[in-house]
Design a protein that fits this description.
Aminopeptidase; alpha/beta; 2 domains; 23% helix; eight-stranded mixed sheet; 10 strands
């Protein structure tokens, strides 16, 4: 219940015909992060029980109140749901919801993929965040087949941090911008999910898609948001890969007439 309103959590469970690990896929722990919602929806519809050696637990939207209000945090309380795990059954509505989700679903899984985007008005590159000191977590991160991995345990109270602490290796997948469905990235994400399932023999007949190159950013390395000093129309200069060297141009900012650049 959330202020006397019933919270209906959308969940799909696909039980494979053969035994294997239970994989949890979660999205929208922040209510305005939509790309993961589409990914989980497609994964839930992609596989039949006959395809799987194991079980898929697809939690389409975790922060239901925020999703319905299209807000990042839990409405009214303005609490970050991704700092509330594993929750408390005798606490605030936010903590009770986190506890229910964690105990009923996450705690029963063997590994997890938690899908995110950047916050509003920012764009993040497609990357994975993972505790690379944990071999089970590193296995997931590398099998996901993405080139950039940010090493770290995650903040206290995050779903990834708590799950890993409890022996459920989990990685965070960061995909572009909030408040929109960016379907151009969908096929790639589905391919990466299938690669993780193949590595863990949930899809034993599929190949693992290892990345052609991988850069692991050390947990003590410098990470920062790059913000422009002025507004205008942006033309991105980097690509097609999300790796640039010091001094490489990232974008140009123009006025409406394209004769003033910054």
């Amino acid at each position: 219940m959330f202020h006397d309103d019933v919270i209906e959590l959308p969940v799909t469970v696909v039980n494979g015909e053969q035994a294997g690990p239970t994989v949890c896929l979660t999205a929208a722990v922040h209510g305005d992060e939509l790309n993961g919602v589409k990914i989980v929806q497609e994964v839930a519809a992609e596989y039949e029980p006959s395809d799987l050696h194991g079980t898929l637990v697809c939690l389409h939207v975790l922060n239901v109140p925020g999703f319905l209000a299209q807000q990042r945090y839990i409405p009214i309380y303005d609490e970050d749901f991704n700092r509330s795990f594993s929750g408390n059954s005798r606490s605030t509505p936010t903590n009770r919801l986190a506890n229910t989700i964690y105990e009923e679903f996450i705690s029963k899984c063997d590994l997890g993929l938690d899908f995110h985007t950047s916050t509003r008005n920012r764009t993040t590159m497609y990357h994975v965040r993972a505790d690379m000191c944990d071999p089970a977590v590193e296995r997931i991160a590398r099998a996901f087949g993405i080139s950039i991995i940010l090493d770290g345990e995650g903040a206290q109270g995050t779903l990834r941090n708590v799950a890993c602490r409890d022996g459920i290796p989990t990685v965070t997948v960061e995909m572009r911008r909030a408040h929109r469905f960016q379907t151009a990235h969908l096929d790639r994400a589905l391919h990466c999910v299938a690669s993780v399932l193949a590595e863990h023999e949930v899809l034993p007949d599929r190949p693992v898609s290892w990345s052609g190159w991988t850069r692991v950013v050390a947990r003590d390395g410098k990470k920062m948001w790059l913000c422009a000093e002025t507004g205008g129309l942006v033309e991105m200069k980097w690509g097609p890969y999300p790796l640039v060297e010091d001094g490489d141009p990232l974008f140009t900012i123009l006025d409406h007439f394209k004769d003033t650049s910054r």
